[in-house]
Amino acid sequence: xxxQVLAASCWIEAxxxxxxxxxxxxxxxxxxxxxxxxxxxxxxxxxxxxxxAIPRGAGRLAITARVHHLSPGRWDVRASTLNGxxxxxxxxxxxxxxxxxxxxxxxxxxVHLWAWPALIGIGAVVALALQALLVARGGGDxxxxxxxxxxxxxxxxxxxxxxxxxLHKRSLRTxxxxxxxxxxxxLVAFAVLAGGAWLTGQDLAATLDATAPAVFVGMAIGRPGxxxxxxxxxxxxxxxxxxxASDRRVAVRRVPVQLIEASAAALIAVASLAVTFxxxxxxxxxxFVATVAAYTIVRQWLFGFRSDPxxxxxxxxxxxxxxxxxxxxILWLVPH
Length: 336
Fold this sequence. Notes:
By secondary structure, the protein is an alpha+beta fold. It is built from eight helices and nine strands. The chain has two domains: 4-105, Sandwich (Immunoglobulin-like); 115-140 and 203-333, no CATH class. The protein has helices spanning 115-137, 142-167, 182-199, 204-222, 224-229, 257-278, 286-303, 312-333; strands at residues 4-13, 21-32, 44-55, 60-67, 74-81, 94-99, 101-102, 243-246, 250-254. It has a five-stranded antiparallel β-sheet with strand order 7-1-4-9-8.
């Protein structure tokens, strides 16, 4: 990880006519400001940044180039659109005076790095508090279960990082860098929670049922952090329902998939809490299975609106399996 990175951005209006979808490319060239000296190899750069598949009429966008392996200090940067880029009007080159920044914080517009740890942390605290209340209400040992859950969250975070590295074919040596997948987190966290509950003599099914609403309350709080930080971004759109957001490279109007997912998690949490307080009979793990299946269906549907590709066949197969599991789970729960 480079200690110093230069983040240079260029603001452009999306094409208004021509192809329904266009690529917009910008060339950034820079020279480090050093009076009385000649620039060396690390004192100049040239880099092209491309905003792919920008819909016609998507509005104002910011394209950011993150340049590594540079001398730290003040830089004179020039941005110009490449020939062949479809734009509504000719965009003249423009110059900026920029400074290098500490690498992990060097991003362009629309990236608020504080939001992810802040909202994830708040979501985790609220989820653990709600889990403790629900476990105690069911007669379980809230202290033991919450302790196991804290461990499951820590190991789940590692699982999310590992899942992300495998999914994006990245070296395990990059685990300290940004990027994590909620699937890996949930898989490892639920496995650790289930194993810990069994080893400590807790009622496994009751523990999972009490955990389900808490997990989705936490997710409803934490998922907007991804929207504000620029991860898991939706694809660019010209729709009036789109919201201006970044994927850490291009800030433009996008499908707000993270906020839709947070809303779905909130609905699942409310529904599961309503069932928990309305029905006194035990669910034998059925509530946990139903909430996870419902969430997985929503998530697979949202993958189709993400900027990063996911296979259609795999998503359809997963949805079909989850629908079958959800239907069987409901049929099993009703007689009980």
